[in-house]
TrEMBL record:
Gene3D superfamilies: 2.60.40.1820. The lineage of its organism: Archaea, Nitrososphaerota, Nitrososphaeria, Nitrosopumilales, Nitrosopumilaceae. This is Uncharacterized protein. InterPro entries: GOLD_dom_sf.
């Protein structure tokens, strides 16, 4: 009788140990979206009339929205990281998940995994995902508004198997990807190809040729800002400044500093911008349409550079397009500071 009790206790102890390992291993399983990579874009046939329509859209700064309407689908590679940090091996047959773009549900995805993952292992699997035009429709406005930036969110449940028992593990991950460069390069490629293959260029006149040339030069590979500045870089970006508005960059100096900057503006209707460097008091006057003084005033120029010595304090760089009624300016800007 005593032996049976002892065997029973041992069996119970083994069962509890296995149960404990099972429970611990469950808490150590994870699935995350390791990366998102653009595989390709499916395009509608591009013809001269569509390219010319795109050219006209650049006059209002809406070229990307027009170009996006030519997309039939976006193909993505979703890279999932599957980790087992527990002490028991697991098997995962597949993944199923919802896909959201910029917070909007656009469909479901499925990946046939069929992997055994040992303790301490992390494996990365690639899942090809086609997002067609119809399913993207609810998210189109947000993609255009963000100039091609897509926040890809996957949300689902992975069923890990312990000794044939399916264990649900919920997962949710987000990664960002941009299709802006791919769209720009494709449009540029089509313009160049059609220039070579289509004799219509010679019959429609130089005005259209000029418009298309402007698209190529100003939107698809125009001037690049190439300046050499010494110091701590605090601005290195591209800004879109809508007609009748301005953009500003606030920055602070903790010491008397040499501040250097350079910029270049692009647009089909007048490559110019006004750049100002103001302290906080004068920036407030600028905002309120009052008389102000500036440390730097470029006037209306295509490009420029400045080299200033400023006291410690708070400042703003202003890119003003308030004088323009219809054209959005694309401004590349770099600036650095160095204590003196």
């Amino acid at each position: 009788m005593g032996k049976l009790v002892a065997i029973g206790i041992i069996i119970l102890a083994i069962f509890l140990i296995i149960l404990g390992l099972f429970a611990y291993s469950y808490t150590q399983l994870s699935v995350n979206l390791h990366d998102v990579r653009l595989h390709s874009i499916d395009w509608a046939p591009l013809s001269w009339d569509k390219l010319l329509n795109l050219g006209l859209s650049t006059l209002t700064g809406e070229w990307f929205g027009t170009a996006f309407m030519l997309i039939e689908g976006v193909n993505l590679n979703l890279l999932f990281g599957i980790s087992n940090n527990g002490v028991l091996p697991v098997y995962i047959p597949d993944l199923s998940y919802d896909i959201l773009i910029n917070g909007i549900l656009i469909g479901q995805g499925f990946s046939d995994v069929d992997l055994a993952i040992n303790p301490g292992q992390t494996k990365v699997i690639t899942s090809f995902q086609n997002v067609n035009k119809d399913s993207m429709t609810p998210a189109v406005f947000s993609i255009i508004e963000s100039q091609g930036v897509m926040e890809i969110k996957v949300k689902g449940i992975a069923y890990f198997q312990f000794f044939g028992i399916g264990i649900p593990v919920p997962f949710e991950s987000t990664r960002n990807i941009s299709i802006y460069d791919e769209v720009r390069e494709r449009i540029n490629e089509e313009i160049q190809k059609n220039k070579l293959q289509n004799s219509v260029m010679y019959s429609v006149g130089k005005s259209i040729e000029s418009v298309l040339g402007s698209i190529v030069n100003d939107l698809f590979g125009g001037d690049e800002l190439e300046i050499s500045l010494s110091g701590q870089k605090f601005v290195d970006s591209i800004y879109q400044v809508s007609p009748g508005t301005y953009a500003h960059i606030a920055f602070s100096l903790l010491c008397e500093s040499q501040v250097e900057g350079g910029f270049i503006a692009n647009d089909i209707l007048g490559d110019d911008i006004i750049v100002l460097v103001l302290d906080d008091m004068n920036f407030e006057k600028f905002e309120n349409d009052q008389y102000f003084t500036s440390f730097y005033d470029s006037g209306k120029v295509k490009s420029g550079a400045f080299d200033l010595t400023l006291e410690s304090g708070d400042y703003s760089i202003v890119m003003s397009n308030q004088y323009s009624m219809i054209s959005t300016k694309t401004v590349q800007f770099q600036a650095v500071s160095l204590c003196v």
